[in-house]
User: Fold this.
Amino acid sequence: MNTPLHRADLEALRRVYLFSGLDDDEYLQAVSHATTLTLAPGQHLFSQGDPAEAFYWVAEGVIRLFRASPQGDEKVIDLVGQNRFFAEAVLFMGSRYPINASAQSHARLIAFDGNSFREWLAQDANRCFRLLAAMSARMHKLVNEIDRLTLMKGADRLLQYLLDHSDPDETGRHKVELEAPKQVIASRIGVKPETFSRLLHKLTDIGCVEMDGTTLYIRDPEAMRQTRIE
Amino acid sequence: MNTPLHRADLEALRRVYLFSGLDDDEYLQAVSHATTLTLAPGQHLFSQGDPAEAFYWVAEGVIRLFRASPQGDEKVIDLVGQNRFFAEAVLFMGSRYPINASAQSHARLIAFDGNSFREWLAQDANRCFRLLAAMSARMHKLVNEIDRLTLMKGADRLLQYLLDHSDPDETGRHKVELEAPKQVIASRIGVKPETFSRLLHKLTDIGCVEMDGTTLYIRDPEAMRQTRIE
DNA sequence: CGTGAGTTTGATTCGAATCAATGGAAGTGG
DNA sequence: CCACTTCCATTGATTCGAATCAAACTCACG
Assistant:
């Protein structure tokens, strides 16, 4: 289902770093080959090894990026929410996606055709610089991820994840809306669902966290940021 | 210790992807702000959080890139050997190195000044494309790394590492020269030294691998590539 | 209501870390 | 050249975190 871009998406996209500060011409040229597509919850977008012909921006919903092992286990590499790009790095690589992507929820995506976008980039080194910066940030995140997987225990990774995803709400408490079912978050932080459940309970027992269905509240984020769980 | 580039390095650098296919002018301009520096074994190059003013190419030796935990443990992210770049992604980021770098052995590096190099890049989108490609490849490697850390057991990661670093030698056997002390390789694949030792023995017991001090021989790489250790 | 996916809880197993000690190999200095 | 230190690798005993296996429980949905 490919259609032109909605008005609202055009405006939102223009504010993201990759496109900010462009004049009208430049911008319209950049998005001229972009199309909207809609995914149902669970719908598959691309698989590891598929030829990479486009990259994406999430206008609405959550996309699950994951690797699958030969045994059928899957490891969620990232959950990509609103206003974020994914798979943009692939445009300069072996031309194959290194991961799988599925819609975690109902989602609306903006797809950028790879060839057209490369042409657009090639016209101006400044445009490339934006992309380079975005990719650097992405790499930095991946290194952090490796670091956490090796240097931290499950409980620490969970806490870290919660802190990274918390927002102060009306009452001043720090709220975390889980962006996916718990088993998916579990895979994201690198533990099994059962372990995830237990870890979460440990955190509530200690008093770090209050749980209320799919939303959590963190008691004292600042104090916690240094904390190690024992 | 900063000195101009050696003749041999100039020629070798010219053959690497980032610079290949440039005319003399372009190339000389690219390396005009590059300097040679020499590190003694164990010498520190930069720390996580240091302002990033340069990136590097390894002319000789091995550089250890690593993260350190507050507890003092360190995780080796990568061992960068001859003819490879590192820290190039940082030029477009927060201007701080996200990792530590030390010389694992005696090493000769070519340092590229960040500002000058960015200027050089800015002159031509094609130059940026080379860098984008290099960074994509790097990201792909990081994703693989995460995948292995979460989806595979220690023995599998070790085997994988050995396969990735094996070369067929004169006799047709597949040889692996360990690029660093075993404890460092251990950290690289994400296990403790003691575990590394035990895993290596398990592999030799099974008959996958022959060990001879710092060099290893893999019996049947092709068969092994699919293998899971149980 | 039933059905089934997602979550929780409990008992058990397993992989790897930890703690502790021994065994080289390389390098230093008298 | 040998004693001595030091770093690195190995080996064994034990502990610990997390996976696995198995079973209940919850709750949204047809």
About this structure: Chain A is about 40% helix and 25% strand. The CA atoms of residues 26 and 120 of chain A lie 9 Å apart. The radius of gyration of chain A is 19 Å.
